[in-house]
From TrEMBL:
Taxonomy of the source species: Bacteria, Bacillati, Actinomycetota, Actinomycetes, Propionibacteriales
ABC transporter domain location: 19-267
GO biological process, alphabetically ordered: peptide transport; transmembrane transport
Protein name: Peptide/nickel transport system ATP-binding protein
Record carries keyword ATP-binding: yes
Organism: Kribbella shirazensis
Family according to the record: Belongs to the ABC transporter superfamily.
Keywords: ATP-binding, Nucleotide-binding, Transport
Pfam families per the UniProt record, alphabetical: ABC_tran (PF00005), oligo_HPY (PF08352)
């Protein structure tokens, strides 16, 4: 067998998703009553794959990600890792799972201990989990990882405290720390959204290199489809709205040929002059800009009060299921499922 051919074992392993969310929901009890932050979603990430989770603030991305990381237990549904339900794992297996999934938060300042130097932050997990034999080896590994995230020369950073670094440098340290335990999945939750644009681009480029070099799976969370396009072009994208997935498919299809009116509206809202994105722009004008409260969700399709395709009696009656609209691409929309994707408007570019 040549090196490029896959053995049956490798093929079988590739077929087992790394992480699965299966009918997962999260309901929070609040003063306003119970709110369904995540409502019956199915998602999976294969080994080495990028899945982007996109949606406006409050759509449930972080809640879904916390469940995927085992940081919160779903109210219903199953979270699987390497084919096993994480909440039925024994203590040991759960520990291994938690080390295999590393979470990189939006705000590195909040996630790094301000009283620890970068060296202390980096070597603590290496020593605690026995990744290396002794402190000397831990320092060597910490130095290698800082180099991997472009903090060079690494020695300059080891003795510093988080407050002595810039936002971009702190986020690089957070990524280096996430790599200490050789994760199989990195959950990057708006990891670049607090950074200035030029720094954001360089941190994204660094993450992209790690994605390509390490073969780690990514659950990449962003409110910005342009960033999903940049980071997840070879992967898949799920679009969330008020706790549900409204569109799912390969990222190029979501960007270049969105089918759900909400995805189309998100693309319309992107201000930057991206030639791929502007091709798909100009299609929808929303009936309302107001996002309904999770405590008082509209009946039927929760997007119906804003949706340009709204049909009385159809859209406000029943919750739409995700249906395959085109091969590999599904959307939860009664009208698109019945009629297909609407034609371009006459004034639309390319019409
Ligand atoms: N612990 C909690 N208790 C009550 N409500 C919560 C809790 N955590 C999240 N929520 C609510 O659940 C909804 C979804 O929040 P979530 O943070 O998952 O959304 P998001 O898409 O990640 O948004 P953002 O980008 O603003 O973080 C929001 O209305 C939020 O206020």
């Amino acid at each position: 067998m040549s090196a490029l051919e896959k053995s049956p074992e490798t093929e079988a392993a590739a077929a087992t998703p790394l992480m699965t969310l299966d009918g997962v929901s999260q309901v929070f009890d609040t003063k306003a009553g119970p709110i369904r932050a995540v409502d019956n979603i199915d998602l999976s990430v294969n080994p080495g794959e990028v899945l982007c989770l996109v949606g406006e603030s409050g759509s449930g991305k972080t809640t879904a990600a916390r469940m995927a990381a085992g940081l919160a237990r779903p109210t219903s549904g199953q979270v699987g890792f390497d084919g096993t339900d994480i909440w039925s794992m024994n203590r040991n297996d759960f520990g291994t799972f938690r080390r295999s999934v590393q979470y990189v938060h939006q705000d590195p300042y909040a996630s790094l201990n301000p009283t620890r130097t970068i060296l202390q932050t980096m070597i603590a997990p290496l020593l605690k989990h026995g990744v290396v034999k002794n402190k000397k080896a831990a320092v060597v590994r910490a130095t290698e990882l800082l180099t991997k995230v472009d903090l060079t020369p690494p020695e300059t950073y080891l003795s510093k405290f988080p407050h002595q670094l810039s936002g971009g440098q702190r986020q690089r340290v957070a990524v280096a720390r996430a790599l200490t335990l050789d994760p199989k999945l990195i959950i990057a939750d708006e990891s670049t959204s607090m950074l200035d644009v030029s720094i954001r681009i360089s941190v994204l480029a660094m993450l992209g290199r790690l994605r390509d070099d390490l073969g780690v799976g990514f659950l990449f969370i962003t409110h910005d489809l342009a960033i999903a396009k940049y980071f997840g072009w070879h992967g898949k994208t799920a679009v969330m709205y008020l706790g549900r997935i409204v569109e799912f498919g390969p990222t190029p299809k979501i960007i270049n040929a969105p089918t759900h009116p909400y995805t189309r509206a998100l693309i319309d809202a992107i201000p930057e002059p991206d030639p791929d994105l502007t091709k798909t722009k100009g299609r929808e004008s929303l009936r309302s800009l107001e996002i309904p409260s999770l405590a008082h969700l509209p009946s039927g399709c929760t997007f119906h009060p804003r949706c340009p395709l709204f049909e009385d009696g159809l859209c406000d009656g029943k919750v739409p299921e995700l249906m395959e609209i085109r091969p590999g691409q599904s959307a939860a929309c009664h009208v698109v499922a019945r009629d297909g994707v609407p034609e371009k408007r006459p004034d639309e570019p390319g019409a």
